[in-house]
Every structure is written in C-alpha cells, then in structure tokens.
Amino acid sequence: MGETIAILGAGVMGETLLSGLLRAGRDPQDVVITERRPDRAAELGAKYGVKVLDNTEAAGLSDTVVLVVKPQDISDLLAEIREHLRPGALLVCIAAGITTAFVEERVPDGVAVVRVMPNTPALVDEGMAALSPGSHCDDEHLARASALLSATGKVVQLPEHHQDAVTAISGSGPAYIFYVVEAMIEAGVLLGLPRATSTELVVQTLYGAATMLKETGEHPTVLREQVSSPAGTTMAALRQLDDHKVRAAFLTAMEAARDRSRELSSGQA
Ligand SMILES: NC(=O)c1ccc[n+]([C@@H]2O[C@H](COP(=O)([O-])OP(=O)(O)OC[C@H]3O[C@@H](n4cnc5c(N)ncnc54)[C@H](OP(=O)(O)O)[C@@H]3O)[C@@H](O)[C@H]2O)c1
Fold first, then answer.
1. How far does residue 264's CA lie from ligand 1's centre (Å)?
2. Angle of helix 246-265 relative to helix 233-243, nearest 10 degrees?
3. What Å distances lie between residue 87 and 63, 109, 133, 158, 266, CA to CA?
4. Distance 69 CA to ligand 1 centre (A)
5. How far apart are CA 235 and CA 228, in angstroms?
6. d(CA 59, CA 54)
C-alpha cells in the first residue's frame, strides 16, 4: 500500500481533490474520505470506490490528512481529530485564511502542517495552488503536499506571509477573468453579434491567448505589441482602456482582495 490520504470534508474542493488524485493514478484503496452529510458520503463512496469513514478513524489510519471543510468548521474538526493523528502525520489545510499557527496550536506539538490556497480550475486539472510550510515541516513533508496538489494542476511554494496576496491573485483570480469574459461577450452583443457567437469568439480567444502565454513563455507586453499595429483597431481599444484607468482598477481591486483576506484571517467579519 502507498501513502494513505484522508480527505476530511468532501464538498466541492474535497471532491475536486479526490477525483484529481484518482485520475493521477492513486489507488482508491489509499484514499479515504469523511463527510458530514451521510447521503453525500454514500454517493461519493460509490462513485469513486473509496472508503468513507468518520473523522477520527480516517485521521487514525492516514499518513496525510487534508482538511477541506469551511474555515469556520476547522476548529471543531481539529478538536475531534487531534488525539487520533498518527505520529509523523502531515496535516494539509485548504481552508481560506486559516494560518499554520492556528492549526499548530490545536494539534499535538510537532505535527507538520502545510497551508494551501487552491483555485477552482483544479476542477479541470488546471488549478494553481500555493503552499506554505508551517514551523515543523521538512522538505519531505513539502514534497508530499506538493505531489498531492499537483494532481489538480500547478503548485508553487511560498512563505506564508504571501498567502493574502496569493488569495487576491490566483485564489480569486478566476472570478476576475470570468468578469472580463462577461464584459467582452456583452460588447459583442452590443456590436450586433448573436450571443452564442459572441460567447464562442470570446471563450476561444481567452483559451488561445492563455495557451500562447503558457506555451511561448513570452512576456504579455510582447504578445500584446504583436497585435497592436500603428494607428490600428487594437490601439484604438487599448487607448480607451487606459482612459478608463482599467489597469489602475485592477491594481486597486487586488489590493482590496488582499486586505479583505487579511481581515478574514485575523477573525474580523
Ligand atoms: N471552492 C473554492 O473555490 C475554494 C478555493 C480555495 C479554498 N477553498 C477552501 O476549501 C474549503 C472547502 O470549500 P468548499 O467550497 O469545498 O466547501 P463545501 O462544499 O461546503 O465543502 C465542505 C464540506 O465539508 C463538510 N463538513 C463540514 N464539517 C465537517 C466535519 N466536521 N466533518 C466532515 N465533513 C464536514 C461540509 O458538510 P456540510 O455541507 O454539512 O457543511 C461540506 O460538505 C474551504 O475552507 C475553502 O476556504 C475553496
């Protein structure tokens, strides 16, 4: 048997991680899940062929325990499992705003904790997860957490003080992109295109542009300049975006998200 992984809380993110791990080749016998709603637990157990246990059993037999409940449920969950963790167990916490110090204070001394901020494209194996080590993590723990998260996309490691910025950029990031896509689709309709056609044009343009960024490795400025001919159509549009301070709005928006993440982390409503 390989490393045993417990996913505590199989909601949206928990199921995403579970299905990614199985697609990446983990044996269903090495993965166990827990879930508060029995009907959901039964459904996932049958769908993925993994064992459904209660939290204490799952914590007691797993090398890596992934906490995927809502931030407000973390404290109770840790109180429930703290006496059942195996020696050498790794705790991976995916709850937004929950610090490694918060988790470490609620488990026995020396337990290794890794904090992770994932994002929703993990659903299609194109996630971006940033992980930060707690005070008792060594390279082996980090490698285990990294391998776990890479089942659903890309992984970077960062010091924990960057997690609020990560939340603002990649955690919330998909929403900004969807917002831009919505605006461009509306613009297409304004210009007389059928809505379905406008949607197809915009979605494929986004996909193509993202693929170019990733595959060429070119800086976005270089790619943008390639489609900005002198006195051309693109420049006419970009000038309007600059006039409306769209770049400045992005900077301010992400500062606001970073600040909100700090507030939530420090327990303010
Ligand atoms: N979704 C995202 O895009 C995203 C992105 C970044 C981070 N995250 C983090 O991922 C975590 C999970 O988010 P989510 O969207 O997956 O939430 P979710 O769908 O509500 O999933 C959490 C699941 O855990 C269950 N649960 C709660 N307490 C439990 C317990 N003590 N034992 C077993 N199961 C328990 C919940 O059951 P009930 O339904 O009965 O409450 C629910 O099914 C959050 O902390 C969030 O901050 C999510």
1. 16
2. 50
3. 9, 11, 18, 26, 30
4. 3
5. 6
6. 9
Residue 262: band (very low, low, confident or very high) from pLDDT cuts 50, 70, 90: very high
Residue closest by Cα to atom 1 of ligand 1: 13
Given a contact cutoff of 8 angstroms between Cβ atoms, the answer to whether 265 and 164 are in contact is: yes
For 80-126, how does the pLDDT look when each residue is reduced to its tens digit (9 = 90+)?
999 999 999 999 999 999 999 999 999 999 999 999 999 999 999 99
**pLDDT tens-digit series, residues 11-34:** 999 999 999 999 999 999 999 999
Residues 189-199: what's their mean pLDDT? 98
Quote the ligand 1 centre to 118 CA distance (angstroms).
13
Residue 185 has pLDDT above 80, yes or no: yes
Q: Which of 34, 69, 81 to mutate to test the pocket of ligand 1 (most atoms within 8 A of CB)?
A: 69
Give the distance (Å) from ligand 1 centre to CA of residue 70: 4
Per DSSP, the residues of 183-195 read: HHHHHHHHTT--H
- The model's pTM is 0.93
Q: Which residues line ligand 1 (CB under 6 A)?
A: 8-9, 11-14, 34-37, 55, 68-71, 73, 76-77, 94-96, 117-120, 171
Q: What is the spatial distance between Cα 183 and Cα 187, in angstroms, rounded to a whole number?
A: 6
What digits encode the pLDDT tens for the residues 30-70? 999 999 999 999 999 999 999 999 999 999 999 999 999 99
Distance (angstroms) between ligand 1 centre and the Cα of 19 equals 15
